[in-house]
Fold these 4 entries.
Entry 1:
Amino acid sequence: MQAAEGRKEAEACDGARSSSPASGPAPLAGSRPAAPDRLGVVNAVKPGETSRTPWIVGVSGASGTPYAAAVLRALLAAGESVDLVVSRASRLTLLDETGISFRDAHWREDLRDWLARGADGKPGTFEADLDGDAVRYWSAGDLAAGPSSGSYPAKGMLIVPASTACVAGVALGLSKDLLQRAASVTLKEGRRLVVAVRETPLSGQTLRQLVALDEAGAVVLPASPAFYAGATHIQDLVDFVAGRALDAAGVPHLLYRRWEGELGGGTSGT
Ligand SMILES: Cc1cc2nc3c(=O)[nH]c(=O)nc-3n(C[C@H](O)[C@H](O)[C@H](O)COP(=O)(O)O)c2cc1C
């Protein structure tokens, strides 16, 4: 963890935070401020209270920002809370693929715009309710953010899409930014890590790094849509990959039609 000085520096690099973490993480539901004379009750959860335990979603700079949008919408639809980390490089892919300039200081507005778009880029395709504390946003440069520590509650992490640079960083434990650090923390804590890698072809180096991630306990999930689920629109292909990522995380969803043992379901009109 960085000291307050380092934290200020990181925030200055990445722009001011506009979410509740902007002025330090908001207290978790069920937590209490530290009482120096009563250390036994710090972070105690009262009966009936529940602690917020989010999925961390990391968006890195590979092509495929519609995959991330589909995963985020489905997590929220399943009633899950989400801590979102958007890498610096992914701002370029997001700009390229949606026209949205993602800004730390206006993340809620920009995220709402992003999640409302279909995979074809059409605005207003979906409705995204981002009010409340369901989504927390952390700057990628904020190495003192909640998800940088194993003691921060989290169910696990999905990296969607994962660049080969991100794969390398996580495989090597570089922790060059919050996204990579949160992934390393997820592995060391033995939590589910889903890595939706997007690149083709894959170099031998990346393949070896993917094996290392698999051996470390991650689910390596290539962003490769299937055609047996009756896709008729680009959104169906995106939702298939997002749905498989959620399957790997154990989160229920209705994103694609599952295989039922009958050939012919992949043809249009069935
Ligand atoms: C428009 C665009 C598309 C890209 N697509 C991919 C991709 O599909 N896969 C990949 O591994 N890198 C891709 N890159 C390169 C990554 O953004 C780059 O390696 C970056 O360093 C990744 O950083 P990050 O992992 O911190 O997000 C793309 C870059 C741009 C600008």
Entry 2:
Amino acid sequence: MLFRAKGQPDETEEARLSPMAEPTKHEERKGMAANNVLVVSAHAADYCTRSGGTILNLVQQGFSVHVLALTCGVRGESGGYWKDNPEGSYEACSELRKRESTEAAKTLGATIEFLDWDDYPLVIDVERTRYLIKRVLQIRPEIILTHWTVDPTNPDHANTGNAVVMACNSASQLGALPGTPAHYYPNIYFFEPTVPMSEFNKFDPDFYVDISANQEKKMQAIAKFGCQPQLGDFYVHFAKHRAFQARIWTKLNIEYAEGFKRFVPYVGKGLPITVRS
Ligand SMILES: [Zn+2]
């Protein structure tokens, strides 16, 4: 788990990257890629609320899921902390959010890494984009889950989604990180924009993941986010809404679902078949 306890010295970059340390040979990298999932989250809880059920499914299917939390959402998504601690500090809130998010990731079976960038606004400049490129090239994911790129109700989310696309585009080019082979364009799936503003944010899912079997566990993970006590209600409501839509297409008894929009088109010798039983 990539979490630096308060008072400990900063790790070196190599140590910070250790859970997914660079393999030494290209073949090892290729082997890793098929099982690696990278989730890029603008704030401390976004990955869990929007894709927690899918992460649980993927972990149970044998994937290794790693979360990059770009910020802790101290300024914009920690209202519970500031309400209870009007004289609190950025640092104290940040540490609390990391503890919450680390517990949530653990509940989902994922590893997590906090980049400690600032939020509201989250600005991703060239240097930060290059860091994301580097992490994509190190982790070499088969699947990436991240934010939808159109989210005027929360530009931090949109900035994250757009930066991830830019990073994947760059990582697919030879020379992006000299000495490192390029990585193919991973399967990028965008998760929900700011809930409940899907229509306003022009998000119409084309993939639904049935998370019914893991909804309870997902809620246990969401419950770790004490600074955002409203999340449980929001995302139960939305998981039911997406399940309602998923049932229309399948007639299956899906109680809870997460919706995604695919970025990289499916390519194969056949066509993907919707699961019906
Ligand atoms: Zn957020």
Entry 3:
Amino acid sequence: MHKLSIDNFRSLDERDIVDNPYVSRDEYRVLFDIIESNDIKNILEIGVSYGRTSRNILKNFSKIERYIGVDVDEFHSFEKIPSQVTERPSCPGEFALSLNDSRFEIFLFPNGIEDLKGFDGFFDLVIIDGDHSYSGVKKDTSFAKKLIRKNGFIFWHDYDNLAGVNKFIDEYNSSDSVVFVRGCRCCYDQIFGTVIRQSKKR
Ligand SMILES: C[S@@+](CC[C@H](N)C(=O)[O-])C[C@H]1O[C@@H](n2cnc3c(N)ncnc32)[C@H](O)[C@@H]1O
């Protein structure tokens, strides 16, 4: 795994960001740098929750054309990690929906991403932050690879934090293409693209 320091990523400066109990400012720094430095127009977030990350991205990037957020509905069974039921939002997507921004759409499905149809090869960036079990991250990654365009990015949250996420990504990383940022709980991979991309500080 390629390990980078947070200093490789542009600082957030005066960005308009609502605090998120799930995502730190350094993790936004990585995500924002990926978006800013690459041709990213269409984003999918698996596990959109209250829509804080989608709100923060849409507020700061006018170049984003579509942002699809997926979460689970009340028929979803949290059998793999029952405690994850507490994370299911009471008002899904509310922060992003409050922007009244037509670029944002939210889908709530009983089975998560496998119920999303019609977007094969469409996304430039897929954020995986839903079911954090080993099999959940594996399934979401497999769908992400179908939904993403060539040279698009997958960004996983909760690496270096949750055992199931670590186990899957360590296996997935057999070709050593994944980038991990020290001190953050996130990593990313450019699918079918060049191995590594370091960005300049702003
Ligand atoms: C840690 S929160 C995500 C935080 C969010 N990404 C953010 O940045 O604010 C996890 C979310 O994943 C959702 N979730 C759990 N299992 C899922 C699945 N199989 N598919 C999609 N979403 C799932 C939960 O309902 C919850 O909203």
Entry 4:
Amino acid sequence: MTLLRDADLADAFDHAARGYDRLVGLNAGYHADLRRSARRLRLPDGGAGLRLLDLGCGTGASTAALLRAAPLARITAVDASAGMLERAAAKRWPRGVTFVHAPAERLAAAGVTGPFDAVFAGYLFRNVADPDAVLAAVHGLLRPGGRLAVHEYSLSGSAAHRAVWSAVCRTVILPAGRRTGDAGLYRHLHRSVLDFDTAPVFAARLARAGFTGTRVLPVPGWQTGIVHTFLGRRGGRIASGGAA
Ligand SMILES: C[S@@+](CC[C@H](N)C(=O)[O-])C[C@H]1O[C@@H](n2cnc3c(N)ncnc32)[C@H](O)[C@@H]1O
């Protein structure tokens, strides 16, 4: 199948927005894993004085994870889907959290400018047409020493993990997508994970984009080898021993 991109993908997420939180709720560990990746940013002092960007915030699950890791930070949460963003904005947030409707490829035009102390991207990069261009833009938005955490379906490269992913899609994700009328989006989810960079390849992509101290960390449970946290910095090094 052809993957969904840009406006077609935003339309598909608009349609899926209503059932999105219920669907991800079926995935034990979805929220805990996002929180784990956000914690891995190791943001100091509860985020006091920090400006953070949640890129591809969806219905706000990744924003909530970031807020848990840095409750005192100011957070700008951005998404290309108006429907997903509407769901996010309807939730209760502290005053420091703001939502912006924009594609990751056109942040400046929407008034989203740096510098940010950290950027978090939960399940975004597999969806963008040109991940190198978005990584370059993110690098440019970070202050020197600023941190990036990408939480993504990125397979380990082992045939076993690829087979587990396809089995979960066949038995759980694709049937659920058919039930909610979002079959196209969930076929995209299945295929986009199979086609996306493996974890070592995405880590090399980060390094090519100029990120330093890059690290790849697993998540526990059935998603081991399927979902990873990728960490990097604009200049400098991630402190060692930081895995949560
Ligand atoms: C799988 S959802 C994840 C949402 C949220 N980060 C989470 O962890 O639950 C991916 C989100 O990325 C958004 N997205 C995809 N491509 C995008 C792009 N180019 N620019 C901004 N958002 C994008 C989609 O609209 C969708 O809300």
